[in-house]
Amino acid sequence: MATPANKLPTHSALLGAGYSVVVADGFAALTVRRVAATANANLGSFVYHFGTRDRFVRELIEQWYAPVLAEMTVVVDSAAGPVDRLRRAILQLVDFSAKQDVFLGRLLMAAAAGDAPAREFLGSMSKRHPRLLIRLIRIAQAEGALVREQPLQVLMFLMASVGLPRLLATAWQGPPLFGKSLSATLHRMACDRLRIAQRLDWAIRGLTREQSK
Question: CA-CA distance, 61 to 36, in Å (whole number)?
Answer without folding.
Answer: 17
